Amino acid sequence: YTTIFTFGAGSGIYHNFTHNIALGRNSTAPSYIYPRTGSNLSFSVELTPPYSIFTDADYTKMSDNEKYKWIEYHKWKFEATYFLEVAPKFVIMGRLKYGFLGSYNSEIGITPFERFYLGGDGLSGYNNLDGREIIGMRGYGNETLTPYYYQDRNVGGTVYCKYTLEMRYPLSLNPSATIYALAFLEAGKAWLYHPMFNPFDLYRSAGFGMRVFLPMFGMLGLDWGYGFDEVPGLPGANGGQFHFSINQSID
User: What's the sign of the alpha-carbon dihedral 143, 149, 153, 154?
Assistant: First the structure.
């Protein structure tokens, strides 16, 4: 797995035991598939035991394989979505998402596991053995908004934010085949280190798409997005992009 892990020999045995605490509130109506009013809020914290507190080991002298054998981190995520019906069946949806990955011990630093990868359709691939969290963003190539992606595709971000504004109109509200069209504005970015975080220095995109819900397959989506901002080191990452999504992976 030398193309997956950016540390050590690229392979090894690593242990990740976590406890997840999640709080949520959902008041959307009248349908989960095509909400018209209400909001959906969620906040979660994912914690591992702080193993390094219980040992006197000098982590500055350890190899990477030893240092990360027992993975430790705390991961915070927040998401808020709001729906407003401005005309019969015509809905405006606003959403914001934040993610933060932290460490317990400065000698170990932030774990290379469980990091954020931003851009594209949000579908996970073969190379998620490091527990990466893939966040979709239309108008850009898959994972290309991840920090220093042009140098190393497996570094990942430790903090990210993403804002979405959509206008939706249904073509069919049949429960067995719900279809709606949408237009969107989107902005987001991921950063390597927390001090770099700036919620107003973002990559921007706009476009349109369609969603089809079929009980047998779930929610299927097709979007075309245009990324307005160039990505350093990746000249083809922005511009016109088609994205296929499954079960709202791109959201």
Answer: negative
Instruction: Give the 3-state DSSP-derived string for the chain, with helices as H, strands as E and coil as C.
Output: CCCCCCCCCCCCCCECCCEEEEEEEECCECCCCCCCEEEEEEEEEEECCCHHHHCCCCHHHCCHHHHCCECCCEEEEEEEEEEEEEECCEEEEEEEEEEEEECCCCCCCCCCCCCEEECECCCCCCCCCCCCEEECECCCCCCCCCCCCCCCCCCCECEEEEEEEEEEEEEEEECCEEEEEEEEEEEEEEECCHHHCCCCCCEEEEEEEEEEEECCCEEEEEEEEEECCCECCECCCCEEEEEEEECCCCC
Q: Give the chain's length.
A: 251
Render pLDDT for 82-101 as a digit per residue (tens, 0 to 9): 999 999 999 999 999 999 99
Q: Which domains does the chain have, with CATH numbers?
A: 19-246 (2.40.160.50)
Tens of pLDDT, residue by residue over 68-77, are 999 999 999 9
pLDDT, tens only, 5-49: 767 766 778 899 999 999 999 999 999 899 999 999 999 999 999
